Amino acid sequence: MEFPRNSVWDIKGADTIGDGQYRLLEIMQEVESLVLCSLSSASTTVRPIAISIETFALLASSKKATRAIYQLPAHLLVDEELIPEEHIKRRDKNFSLIKDIVSDRRFVFEYSTMKRSPLLAEYARQIGVDRKSLARLLTQFWLNGQDRMALLPAFPNSGASGKTRTPGSKPLGAPKQPRTIAFERAKKYIVKDQDKKYFKAALNKYHLKEGGHTLSKTYEYLLKDSYAKECKMADACGRPPHVPSLKQFSYWRTKLFSSEQIIKGRTSENDYLRNKRSVLGCVTDHTHLPGAHFEIDATVADVHIVSELSAQYVLGRPTIYIVVDRASRMIVGMHVSLYHASWRSARQALTNCFLAKSAYCADFGIQIDDSEWPCVHIPRELVCDNGEMIGAQSQKVLTPMTKLSFTPPYRPDCKGVVEKRFDILNDEVIHELLGSTRGRQVIRGSRDPRQDSIYTLKEVTAEIINAVLEHNRSIFDDLAFASPLLVEHDLSPTPINYWKVHLLKHRHELQSANRDEVIARLLPSAEVSMTRSGIYFNGMYYTCSDLEELNLASVARSLGRWRLEARIDENTTNYIYVRLEKNRGFIRCDLLPRSRMLGDKSMFESDFLQDWLDTKKELNPISSASIDNHKNRQEITRQAKRRSKNAEKTSLKDKTSNVRQRRKEELAATTNMLESNIDSPSIPEITSANTDDKVIPLPRGRKRRKGKGES
Asked: Which CATH superfamily hosts domain 294-515?
């Protein structure tokens, strides 16, 4: 077994040497001995001991002596360039005093085997240094590694650093000094053990709790609770009270309580875990494969939007849903809507996550290839907060597809990847838009951001899509250290590169999504009507090739409308998915030209139009003119009834006889037509150019046959 010089050994259970740690100073082959120095002694002068090599080898073979590590003092673990010049001079001076004897093997062996060393005393006389001073330097040299740095002065421990001093009759610390000679400061208070108990009680009662008082306010309560008698006495005598100062109280707060205790005591457990605890790890530490965990969350966008149909109507702030792959930081799905955070909006985001993105982007005027956003997969686990996703409906829908994992309440840090994406989107695009609140509360007197809102929901969604595509192409330093595949293939550490290279090497936990299953399970369901004009939904009409082949509109015209099951994509009004027959899947139906006003818009604009129509109906359910007409009609009816009272005795035959003659008499009585003109069968010839004073009769129609009631 090797016994290297300067090695440290831990000896236990040996008969010839005491237990403890020892440094091997020298190997004396000429006398077959080893020189050891104890590292466990607290004395400043330690004499080494000699032991035979054979005995030490037996201790090592029997595991009574084992290699160990000796922790050097912190003041020795410093760069040479950072040591003050005066410390270097002191170190070199001390080393020059002992360098001649520590290199003398005869002296080392004699010093370790004899109780009195004449060589040390003689050497001390030669250089004019006290023998005990040399003994202390030798001990320091051997304990700390037998090199020049071992003699570096340990000034960091000067002044009893870290130890509590016992006060006497004289106050500790600097005295109170007035700024001018015109005033004299009060005597400094000597803090005793009883005062420390008062400090601790006041801090626990008023300061170290959630929403606790400030230190200065706590100091006031301390004086009221524990030094009230002294304060009253001093006030009556007109002198300063002899009590601890605020500075002393602040000092003893840090002595009586650790920094961690102060931080934990001043906040709640949730706030500490979320904002103040140490962050030694990351949620991505155990997730480096795409698809292992997707995170989903929603936030209210920091921008106000207006309606596409009428820019004068402000619709408020939309809700943004984001789905992020935890390993690659890839935004794999999104949804922007006017609904609040709910299962209805979340299912739209998940639909977008599981289906191809090219068609979705095309609805907002952005043309991309599927390879530019290649996320059409279902994850192994979906991480969400303890909110809209915890309901029975969401679990019933998603559990067959993936595993749901819920974070604790008030712990957004458990899904910090998606939370950080919201910050990135705000900084990159949303806060740059007109009408943005920029994440701050409205200050009184400042301009209301709603006055500047000009963007529609479709325009804001398009901006967010572009920001998401840019995010997926951006470089993130953390990805370079997450997987070696990026370095092996010389790819930039971007989310899309991370995603693609792991899929290429089959290192992922993704599963493919069936389009029909996603549409049937995740898109919001609705009831539509089959009418003679097409499939009706929310004021719009749709059709498809299957509907025209089956001639269902003609059937609805003859037999009446009926209801059908449908799935609605709230991002666009251009199409819906309808189940035409019970045992068939959902078929895409496109918007008819008669509903073109709502084309290329979101479903929220259709809801807006319906609300606008309802408000107009509520605002004017009946016009004033119609009320006047109704009253006039009633008055005319009453007059006619009064006028016809005398004719009630006349029989129906007399009333309806000779109708044609009576019509002629009525025309003659109520107009200025001549009798001859009335009876004339043809239009008379016009003989004069000036016909302003003449009445020209129109041609008469053919004679009608007399009815049964006419005579």
From this structure: Ribonuclease H-like superfamily/Ribonuclease H (3.30.420.10)
Residue 275 has pLDDT above 60, yes or no: yes
Mean pLDDT of 430-438: 86
| Domain residue ranges of the chain, discontinuous segments joined by + | 8-154, 193-273, 294-515, 524-619
- Sorting pLDDT into bands at 50, 70 and 90, what band is 695? low
- Nearest in space to 521 (alpha carbons), one of 586, 615, 588: 586
DSSP 3-state of 408: coil
Tokens 């370095």 appear where?
Answer: 487
Instruction: Note the pLDDT tens digit of each residue in 321-353.
Output: 999 999 999 999 999 988 888 888 888 899 999
CB 513 within 8 A of CB 296: no
Cβ neighbours of 177 (radius 10 Å): 6
Alpha helices in 560-674 (DSSP H): 603-619, 624-643, 652-656, 659-670
- Sequential DSSP letters for 302-370: SB-EE-SS-TTSEEE--EEEEEEETTT--EEEEEEESSPSSHHHHHHHHHHHHS-SHHHHHTTT----G
- DSSP structure class, residue 27: E
pTM beyond 0.90: the answer is no
> Whose CA is closest to 28, among 144, 140, 110?
110
Q: What is the DSSP string of 242-299?
A: ----HHHHHHHHHHHS-HHHHHHHTS-HHHIIIIIS-----TTTT--STTS-EEEEEE
Mean pLDDT across 385-400: 79
Please tell me the number of Cα atoms within 13 Å of 71 on its side-chain side: 1
**Average pLDDT value over all residues in the chain:** 84
Maximum CA pair distance of the chain?
Answer: 171
Pairing state of beta strands 20-28 and 8-11? antiparallel
pLDDT-derived band at 208 (thresholds 50, 70, 90) equals very high
In this structure, what token pair is assigned to residue 648? 């009630």
Q: Is 697 helix (H, G, I), strand (E, B) or coil?
A: coil
Burial 255-284 (b: 16+ CB within 10 A, else e): eebeeeebebbbbeeeebebeeeeeeeebb
Label residue 552 exposed, middle or buried (CB < 10 Å: 0-12, 13-18, 19+).
buried
What's the CA gap between 195 and 255, in Å, rounded? 13
Phi-psi region of 128 (alpha: psi -120 to 50; beta: other; left: phi over 0): left
3-state class (DSSP) for residue 684: coil
* Cβ burial 127-154 (10 Å sphere, 16+ → b, else e): eeeeeeebbbbbbbbbbbeeeebbbbbe
Residues facing 177 on adjacent strands: none
* β pairing state of 534-537 and 525-531: antiparallel
CA neighbor of 377 nearest in space, from 398, 359, 356, 362: 356
